[in-house]
Automatic annotation (TrEMBL):
Keyword NADP tagged: yes
GO terms for biological process, alphabetical: pantothenate biosynthetic process
Keywords attached to this entry: NADP, Oxidoreductase, Pantothenate biosynthesis
Organism: Nitrincola tapanii
Name under which the protein is recorded: 2-dehydropantoate 2-reductase
Family from the record: Belongs to the ketopantoate reductase family.
EC numbers, comma separated: 1.1.1.169
Length: 296
């Protein structure tokens, strides 16, 4: 089974390795001027380093053919790049291609679902964690838990051969809930680590920080309840603490983007949360403060 990967950042590199380990073929989609036939990424996992060598597919340097090249696509781009990145490969997607979205935030995957009803789409939430240092080396921290739901719901099917991925993927028939579970955790951990410039585990290091986490979790739960979207079977704060502990050594993507003075996903995560609250007339002071602070 051949999967194309769109978004070879830290998390994309980790997922490429997971799919390769499961015995799947993986090609990396790039939009750079590099015309070499392979893409290399250095991944450190459990104290050992390895070099991933992936066949390169560059749509800008590939002539369209009568037979579409991409039948299975995994999207792990930054949320603000998702639509343009997807559009760059849309010509090469076969009808009824399987597409999995694991990017942060809510919005691009829903727009693509409306535009391309012919595709078989999955949306997912994952607590897998990795970060890339300034030299480009990727450090895998945790494989975490991953939940996938077929869009628009009603099916527990997984994408082709994803039943071979370890640890096992959990199927769901509630895609909107899956997206909100990912959003809820990201909206608490990512902006806090970006603002404090700390690793995930350091969010639990003081009573003050724990109180901030509790406030943010309570606000998200208030919003989700107003939207009639069930989250977890336990308090969000419990889930956030568990993820922060499991990924204690990780720097969130938003933390690294802020550190490197790059565009962050604050609009797709905290901005989305605040806009949803404003539409309902709700006030989320903790998230609003983070949104304003990280927009500067």
């Amino acid at each position: 089974m051949h999967w194309h990967l769109l978004g070879l950042g830290a998390l994309g590199t980790l997922w490429a390795d997971r799919l390769l380990t499961a015995g799947l073929q993986v090609s990396a989609i790039t939009r750079s001027a590099d015309i070499s036939t392979q893409v290399e990424r250095r991944l450190h996992w459990q104290g050992e380093g390895k070099t991933l060598q992936l066949p390169r597919f560059n749509p800008e340097h590939t002539a369209p053919t009568q037979t579409p090249l991409i039948t299975h696509l995994l999207v792990v781009t930054k949320s603000y790049d998702t639509l343009s990145a997807f559009d760059s490969v849309a010509t090469w997607l076969s009808p009824e291609a399987e597409v999995v979205f694991l990017h942060n935030g809510i919005g691009p995957q829903l727009e693509i679902a409306q535009r391309r009803p012919d595709l078989n789409l999955w949306v997912g939430t994952t607590t897998a964690a990795a970060y890339r240092d300034p030299e480009g080396e990727v450090y895998g921290i945790s494989l975490g838990e991953t939940e996938l739901a077929r869009w628009p719901g009603g099916s527990l099917a997984l994408p082709a051969s994803w039943d071979k991925v370890v640890p096992p993927i959990t199927p769901s028939d509630q895609p909107l809930r899956v997206l909100w579970k990912k959003l809820a955790i990201n909206a608490v951990i990512n902006p806090m680590t970006a603002l404090l410039q700390c690793r995930n585990g350091e969010l639990l290091s003081t009573d003050t920080r724990r109180q901030q986490l509790q406030q943010l979790c309570s606000e998200i739960e208030k919003l989700a309840q107003a939207l009639d979207i069930p989250l977890f079977s336990e308090p969000l704060y419990t889930c956030v603490c568990r993820v922060a502990q499991a990924t204690a050594g990780n720097y969130s993507s938003m933390c690294m983007d802020t550190r490197l003075n790059q565009t962050t996903e604050i609009e797709a995560i905290t901005g989305y949360v605040c806009r949803q609250a404003q539409a309902l007339g709700l006030v989320l002071p903790g998230h609003q403060a983070l949104w304003e602070a990280l927009q500067r």
